[in-house]
Amino acid sequence: MNSTRLKILIIDDTPSNIQLLGEVLEQKYIIQIATSGERGLQLAHQDPPDLILLDIMMPGMDGNEVCKQLKSDDILKNIPIIFITALSDTETELQSLALGAADFIQKPFKIEIARLRIDNLLEREALRKELVIKEQQQRLAASVFNYSHDGIAITNSDNQIIDINRSFTRITGYQISDVIGKDPKILQSGQQSDKFYQGMWDYLLKHNNWSGEFWNKHKKGHLFAVQSSIAIIRNAAGDIDHFVAIFSDITLRKTHDEALKRIAYFDELTGIPNRTLLSDRLTQAIAQTQRNNTIMALCFLDLDGFKQVNDQFGHEVGDKLLIEVTQRIARCLRKVDTLSRIGGDEFVILLLDLNAEDEYSVSVERILNILQQPFVIDNNSINISASIGVTLFPQNDNDSEILLRHADQAMYTAKQKGKNQYFLFDAKLDHDLYEHEQSLSQIKQAISNNEFVLYYQPKVNLSNGNVQGFEALIRWQHPQKGLLAPAEFLPIIENSDLMIELSDWVIASAMQQLNQLQEVNSKLAISVNIAPCHLIQKDFVRKLQDHLNTYPNIAAECLELEVLETAVLDDVLRVSEIMKSCMDLGVNFSLDDFGTGYSSLTYLKNLPAKTLKIDQSFIRDMLVDSDDMAIIVATIGLAKAFHREVIAEGVETVAHGKKLLEIGCELAQGYGISHPMPANEIKDWLLQWEDESKVFQRS
Ligand code: C2E
Ligand code: MG
Ligand code: MG
Questions:
Q1: Which pLDDT band holds residue 3 (cuts at 50, 70, 90)?
Q2: 582 shares its domain with 673
Q3: Weakest mean pLDDT among 18-22, 354-358, 463-467
Q4: Which residue segment(s) compose the domain that 103 sits in?
Q5: Rounded to two decimals, what is the model's pTM?
Q6: Residue 341: pLDDT above 60?
Q7: Could you tell me if the CB of 518 is within 6 A of ligand 1?
Q8: Distance of CA 624 from the midpoint of ligand 3 (Å)
């Protein structure tokens, strides 16, 4: 009980009367004395006491009046009053009780009895006050329970619900009658595992409280999310009396979180994981594959012909197609696999838990097959296919980024091999590609460093020694490796932009050289080898015209273009069109390496080439190999029949030259006449050739 001493105010006009009582009470209480009714009221107002001993008979304001005034004061009215009276008649007793006195003590005092009465009264009063406070607290608790916005459930030690509040009903849909005596389990949604609940109980029993989030099931069946705190209420012996669960509905926040998560991790169009989620999954998949000692196949899929669908039918149809593609692919996968979309028509598929290196092919083939079936979208029948690149982990033991890149590369190879197929990443191929990239950048550097030069090899008429002109042959003056032949670098840049750039440089340099040559002899020509990819450039003819325009004094006939017979045959119609346009500018053509491409006579008839250049492979053994000789003779005949010139390349000896003359081929080029030479040696060679040429004419 309260340890502070209680205060008693004694109001009595004759202090001697109560002196003794006062002394006894002072041992336990704080005593204040007022000798008149007015003073008593004043002191009571200043500092309300816990008990007032009030004399009835006083001059001026008597005890009854003081009592009345005390009872009419809101603050003082609850202070218990004990009347002190010398009168012992019943009327006085009744009157004083009617006025609200708690008790009365008779004068003269029997000190012990008076003290006991006072003690009892104050004790009762203290209990009453305590009760009032408890009641207030209970009322407060009840209204907190009832009006709380959070749902509250109280269960007994067997975890059976004994009470719930209104918010519980609002949030869960269950009334008290639905749940009383039941286990709160009835709210479980199945969204959390048994392990989750086990963990919750373990923690709760150990720490007496638990808080966390989970999904529950509403009475009507839908799910809702709660943030919940559960506490254990134990009795004095430490045994569990109750569990109290307080929870708030966080479904809105959760669904908002979910929506944000969807945007961040899922592809908006198809709803499957996007690149961000893929990279998470990939990291997990690698770890899982290592842990389980299995194999993962990472497949990079790119649709063939998707762009055309977009162009032809519009983006809306394109989008619908992507959605259907997603659904079809998903049908070929198992639950452990991941399908993600990482770009327009690019998908990445993770096939997990494979036990053999070729197991992936079953799924991949199924996907290729299912995508080949026609799609019907908005009444349009659409046919597409896919190219898939695959790489296996741990066979390809690299991090997720490199694995993705390798699968992408393999996909690219599948495309190059003709689409609608898959290709397994090949480490050697990767290395080659890397080397290729390196070489490309070195060549690019060499172009800007001006490391390429042209060598010139004369073309002559063996019958009279006349020099017709020179063939420009490119060399790379490599700072470390020395002079490199075209075979060492041209194949690397074949079909690349670098080839176009370099070829353009070749024509420009050759024209510049031709300009100088013509000062010596205006009949001299220069021939330039044209790469097939260069020739078919849209602006080839226009650029050629530009080159010619740079040197208005040079006759266009003095520029000759050598194209490989094989290249022409690849696309006869297109190439012969371009050739015709060039010839309209006055430029001539030779069909290089003639005889290696099996030109049909029909083609030859239509090809606007001035010269056939017999391939050196036939010339080399012509003196010993009668088949080669036969081909040469036939080619010479062919040229004559179609009114074309014919030239032999690879004429290495005088004997070759003489034989060619004998069978009617006068034009020749080869080491036997001259090796290709740098431009600055041409003048000296021309002088020296006048004598040397005669060796071919002597019999
Ligand atoms: P091509 O146009 O058939 O050129 C003839 C090749 O035979 C040249 O090799 C030349 O050096 C070589 N040669 C000439 N006479 C003889 C001989 O008597 N015996 C032997 N064994 N070889 C002889 P090169 O310079 O290595 O050029 C190889 C090929 O590279 C050329 O064959 C041509 O197709 C291509 N090429 C050269 N320069 C260029 C160029 O500027 N642009 C393009 N696109 N291709 C070029
Ligand atoms: Mg050539
Ligand atoms: Mg050739």
A1: low
A2: yes
A3: 18-22
A4: 3-143
A5: 0.52
A6: yes
A7: no
A8: 21
For residue 304 and ligand 1, the question of a CB distance below 6 A is answered with no
User: Candidates 503, 506, 529, 615: which one to mutate for ligand 1, based on the most atoms within 8 Å of Cβ?
Assistant: 529
Q: What angle do CA 30, 12, 75 make, to 5 degrees?
A: 60
Q: Which of 649, 651, 675 to mutate for ligand 1's pocket (most ligand atoms within 8 Å of CB)?
A: 649
Query: Is residue 286 domain-shared with residue 416, that is, in the same domain?
Result: yes
* Per-residue model confidence as pLDDT tens digits over 116-152: 889 998 998 889 889 999 999 999 988 889 899 999 9
Closest-CA residue, ligand 1 atom 15, reads: 670
Q: Tell me the two tokens of residue 321.
A: 């197609």
User: 698 versus 647: which is more confidently predicted?
Assistant: 647
250 and 105 in a single domain? The answer is no
Q: Which residues contact 327 (CB under 8 A, 6 or more apart)?
A: none
Residue 107 sits in a domain of what CATH number?
Answer: 3.40.50.2300
- In this structure, are residues 51 and 122 in contact, taking their beta carbons and an 8 Å threshold? yes
pLDDT higher at 601 or 488: 488
Q: Which bound ligand lies closest to the C-alpha atom of 499?
A: 1
136 HSE (CA, 13 A, CB side): 6
Distance 473 CA to ligand 1 centre (A): 6
Identify the nearest ligand to the CA of 490 by its number.
Answer: 1
At 587 the pLDDT is 96
CATH number (domain holding residue 298) = 3.30.70.270
Q: What's the structural domain count of the chain? A: 4
The answer, yes or no, to whether any atom of ligand 1 lies below 6 A from the CB of 346, is no
Q: Which ligand is nearest to the CA of 565?
A: 3
Q: Copy the structure tokens of residue 14.
A: 């004759």
- The pair of three-digit structure tokens given for residue 467, joined into one six-digit string: 């020099």
Residue with the nearest Cα to atom 21 of ligand 1?
Answer: 650
- Residue 590 Cβ inside 6 Å of ligand 1? The answer reads no
Q: Which of 114-128, 194-208, 654-668 has the lowest mean pLDDT?
A: 114-128
Domain end among 143, 177, 211: 143
Is 287 domain-assigned?
yes
In a domain, 157, yes or no: yes
Ligand 1 site, residue 490, Cβ cutoff 6 A: yes
Q: Token digits for 163?
A: 């009470």
Q: Work out the pLDDT band at 1, boundaries 50, 70, 90.
A: very low
Q: Within this chain, do residues 176 and 289 fall inside the same structural domain, yes or no?
A: no
Q: What's the pLDDT score for residue 2? A: 46
Mean pLDDT across the chain = 92
| Strand spans (E) along 482-610 | 482-484, 525-529, 559-564, 588-594
Q: Kindly report the CATH number assigned to the domain that includes residue 188.
A: 3.30.450.20
Q: Is 671 near ligand 1, meaning CB less than 6 Å away?
A: yes
d(CA 645, CA 223): 89
Model confidence at 602, in pLDDT bands (50, 70, 90)? confident
432 belongs to a structural domain: no
684 and 571 belong to one structural domain: yes
In a domain, 259, yes or no: no
Give the three-class secondary structure for 78: coil
Do 195 and 286 lie in one domain? The reply is no
132 and 153 part of one domain: no
Q: Using a 6 Å cutoff on CB, does residue 531 contact ligand 1? A: yes
Q: What is the CA radius of gyration of the chain?
A: 55
Q: Among 425, 457, 473, which residue terminates a domain?
A: 425
Please report which confidence band the pLDDT of residue 56 belongs to, taking 50, 70 and 90 as the band edges: confident
Query: Which residue's alpha carbon is nearest to atom 14 within ligand 1?
Result: 670
Q: Confirm or reject: Cβ of 595 under 6 Å from ligand 1.
A: no
Same domain, 154 and 131: no
Token look-up 């190999």 returns: 625
